[in-house]
């Protein structure tokens, strides 16, 4: 699959997921109050680490397993490009993630921590993005869904826009904050 195919899927199947992203917006509806935010990147320095699992899963295909690694690499690379921040990428099988820790949790690991809640995801390319305390979760039913979630996260919080698998546009940002 080319990245442009995946992005086209993101555009096509993003309707449900847009509600999840909008839930991370800046103000509470009707109150005008600012929702609490956490800084993922401050002055070009990563304040979070990224957790994912490459543990072989017999329920997923070899292609899907490879794509989990690719999704994590895409997150790292595009956050580096847009913010200059270098994230610690941690391959772990542990679902014992501290709510007090500062982690972005990807794919299968994020799903397992959340009780494998795929509600509302009707396609293999759908994803969930949400924040619980200091934890940010990005996952889909498949690694393609997770990858779409990563691209959506990038677009919403760094302004990165993809046009093809090799053509993208962004304005460098030094700070990235995520609301509840």
Write a structural description.
The protein is of the alpha/beta class and 180 residues long. The protein has helices at residues 3-12, 15-22, 62-83, 107-113, 143-158, and strands spanning 37-42, 45-46, 49-52, 88-91, 103-106, 127-132, 135-140, 161-162, 168-169, 176-179. The longest helix has 22 residues, at 62-83. The protein is globular, with a radius of gyration of 15 Å.
Could you spell the SSE succession in H and E letters?
Answer: HHEEEHEEHEEHEEE
The level of helicity is 25-40%
Estimate the mean pLDDT confidence: 76
Oligomer: single chain
Query: What fraction of residues sit in β-strands?
Result: 15-25%
**Gross morphology:** globular
Question: Strand count, sense and closure of the main sheet?
Answer: 5 strands, mixed
Main sheet strand line-up: 4-3-5-7-6
| DSSP strand tally | 10
Q: Show unreliable segments.
A: 1-35
How would you summarize the topology of this molecule?
Blueprint: H1 3-12, H2 15-22, E1 37-42, E2 45-46, E3 49-52, H3 62-83, E4 88-91, E5 103-106, H4 107-113, E6 127-132, E7 135-140, H5 143-158, E8 161-162, E9 168-169, E10 176-179
Parallel strand pairs: 3-4, 3-5, 5-7
Antiparallel strand pairs: 1-2, 1-10, 6-7, 8-9
Helix pairs in contact: 1-5, 3-5
Question: What attributes does this structure have?
Answer:
180 residues; alpha/beta; five-stranded mixed sheet; three-stranded antiparallel sheet; 5 helices; disordered N terminus
């Amino acid at each position: 699959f080319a990245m442009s195919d995946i992005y086209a899927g993101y555009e096509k199947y993003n309707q449900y997921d847009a509600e999840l992203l909008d839930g991370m917006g800046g103000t509470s509806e009707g109150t005008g109050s600012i929702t609490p935010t956490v800084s993922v990147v401050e002055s070009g320095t990563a304040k979070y680490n990224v957790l994912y699992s490459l543990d072989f899963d017999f329920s997923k295909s070899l292609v899907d397993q490879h794509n989990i690694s690719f999704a994590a690499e895409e997150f790292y690379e595009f956050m580096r490009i847009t913010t200059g921040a270098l994230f610690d990428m941690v391959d772990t099988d542990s679902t014992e993630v501290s709510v007090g820790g500062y982690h972005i949790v990807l794919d299968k690991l994020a799903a397992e921590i959340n009780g494998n809640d795929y509600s509302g995801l009707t396609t293999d390319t759908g994803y969930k993005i949400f924040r619980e305390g200091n934890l940010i979760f990005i996952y889909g039913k498949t690694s393609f869904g997770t990858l779409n979630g990563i691209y959506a996260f990038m677009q919403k919080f760094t302004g990165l826009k993809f046009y093809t698998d090799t053509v993208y546009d962004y304005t460098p940002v030094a700070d990235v904050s995520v609301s509840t």
